[in-house]
Amino acid sequence: MVSVSPYRIAIYARYSSDLQNPSSVDDQISLCRRLIAGQLATDPDHALIFSDAAMSGATIDRPGLTRLLEAVRSKWVDLVVAEGLDRLSRSLKDIAAIHETMSYNGVTIWTAHEGRITELHIGLKGTMNSLFLSDMKARIKRGHRARIVAGYAISACPYGYRIVRGVVDDKRRNVNGVREIEEEAAQIIRRIYQEFADGRNVSQIVDGLNRDGIPAPSGRTWMRHTLVGSPRKQEGILRNPIYIGQLVFNRSYVVRDPVTNKRVSVPNPEAEWTKVDVPHLRIISDELWAAVRENYRGRLKKKDEPEPEPRILNSHNQHALTGWIKCGWCGGGKQIANDSRYLCSTHRYAKKCKNSRGTREPVLMAATFDALYTRIKHGPAFRPHLIQAFASELERSKELSKVEADLLARIGRLLDAIEHGIDTESATQRVLDLQDQLKHARQTIQIEAPPILPDEATIRATLARAVQSVEMARDVKRTRRMLKCLLSEIVLTPIADNRCGETITLTLREEGWPDFWRMVSSGMARPGQK
Predict the structure, then answer these.
(1) Which CATH number fits domain 161-304: 3.20.20.140, 3.90.1750.20, 1.10.3520.10, 3.40.50.2300?
(2) What are the structural domain ranges in the chain?
(3) Which residue pairs, CB below 8 angstroms and at least 24 apart, start in 119-128?
(4) Which residue ranges does the record assign to the Resolvase/invertase-type recombinase catalytic domain (predicted)?
(5) Terminal C-alpha separation, the chain
(6) What single DSSP character describes residue 4?
(7) For residue 85, what are the β-bridge partners?
(8) Which helix (DSSP H) or strand (DSSP E) does residue 82 occupy?
């Protein structure tokens, strides 16, 4: 039996798919508690619990695992218990990093399957888990290819089709991936192909669809990329071979960036694609398809032609203010366009708004930060609002402080009693027990402590420095994280009786200051924090 302080044990549980039973986490926790009860001289109910539901072990970016590693670095944990090493990670690189972090902080890993984890387990089991992950991906791809060959779809239902529910095979099992033509949308697709074959360009077709009030596949306005899509992946209505009754699989594959840990899509060579004829899904004739293909070279803009070299798709390229800018005339969204100006999307694509004016991104960024500084310096007091927002946490902190004070008093009384001659052995043991409880109470206070609220002047100065650090860093990710807390919307309205220019009406989220204060208190808004 190993003796470990009951408040320094952590249990980690995870299941990887939303198709699995969510009770899997509870089952893993119960198994770990039985392991603790059988192997360790401590109460398993006092162990800290960390878990992740429906999250793959292929990535280390999991909320529960992140909190566990933070607890490890903060010296709140001596032992981590899990069902198996694969619950922590299936990536060889990530499990090695996790083990290194825990070893550096003096933390041991125990699992029900492998026992005490050593470097040997990391090397062998990590490699096995990584191979399992690769094998699972290969089996999934093989299964998808088999479904495609059988004529069933495995991707999202494209425009022009609908999903058929309730289909069963001869063994009474539900069959997924069955599609059928949605005739109303199919007529729109035939119109798009015919107009392009007759000589209209993509912009004219888009304008016509929007002018006639036909909703796009997204339910909003039609845009150019809806028709032309990605040349390398043959996406877009004018490129998708599904409309001539051909299912295509393996156009691209997904990899995870080892630095950012983000998933990115990489196109496969066309020779590696799997193509299967599904004549019952044909919407466009071969003649019309060939006419559109013939017109591509001379009539699609050069930027729509396939790239000479493969490149990674879906790379992050988002602007800090995207999603917050609105048009003051029609209420629609404004998106970044030429010369870094935010232009009305309804005007650009549907021609239903006359606001053709735009405001440059640097001007809007400067106005946003000016508004934040003005609110911090001259706006209503922050402290009463923050106190109200953190009231429950402050109450909990006060309760824990009372517990801490009570334990200190009881320890003091016992020490006084020892000095006056009571049974030293039993009193000393009781003091040690109370000291363990005191240690746990203080750790809980540290973990659950609400953000510190100084005086009003200090709060304003701290918020101003935090906003300034975000502005100076010019990091899109950090800026957007701050704006999600503090920015409601920016409305751009053309200035009356002027040929150019727009007024900027900026609305802040007063209810978001407590969340931003949490960010500031935890260091997320400081320089260098991502």
Answers:
(1) 3.90.1750.20
(2) 9-137, 161-304, 317-390+451-530, 391-448
(3) 121/85, 122/85, 122/95, 122/96, 125/85, 125/86, 125/95, 126/85, 126/92, 126/95, 126/96, 127/92
(4) 8-174
(5) 43
(6) -
(7) none
(8) strand 79-82
The number of angstroms, rounded, from the C-alpha of 20 to the middle of its chain's C-alpha atoms is 21
What is the chain's pLDDT, residue by residue, as a tens digit (530 residues)?
444 444 589 999 998 764 456 568 888 999 999 988 888 767 888 888 898 887 776 778 888 898 899 889 988 899 999 999 889 988 778 888 898 899 888 899 999 988 898 888 887 766 776 666 677 777 777 777 777 777 787 777 899 999 898 888 777 777 787 899 999 999 999 999 999 998 888 888 988 998 888 988 988 788 888 898 776 666 789 989 999 999 888 877 776 655 555 667 777 887 888 888 999 999 999 999 998 888 765 554 444 444 433 343 344 447 899 889 999 999 888 988 876 899 998 888 777 788 999 999 999 999 999 999 999 999 999 999 888 877 766 676 677 778 778 888 888 888 777 777 776 777 777 777 777 777 776 766 555 556 678 999 999 999 999 999 999 988 888 899 899 999 999 999 999 888 889 999 999 999 999 889 988 876 644 434 43
What one-letter code names the amino acid at 176?
N
Look at the block and give the residue holding tokens 């009693």.
Answer: 417
CB 30 within 8 A of CB 463: no
Give the rounded distance of the alpha carbon of 464 from its chain centre: 28
CA Rg value for the chain: 31
d(CA 359, CA 524): 30
**Cα–Cα dist 81/112, whole Å:** 8
- The model carries a pTM of 0.47
Are the folds of 9-137 and 161-304 the same?
Answer: no
Q: Annotate 424-492 with DSSP letters as a single string.
A: HHHHHHHHHHHHHHHHHHHHHHHHHPPPP---HHHHHHHHHHHHHHHHHHT-HHHHHHHHHHHEEEEEE
CA distance 461 to 366: 20
Q: Token pair 């156009």 is at which residue?
A: 251
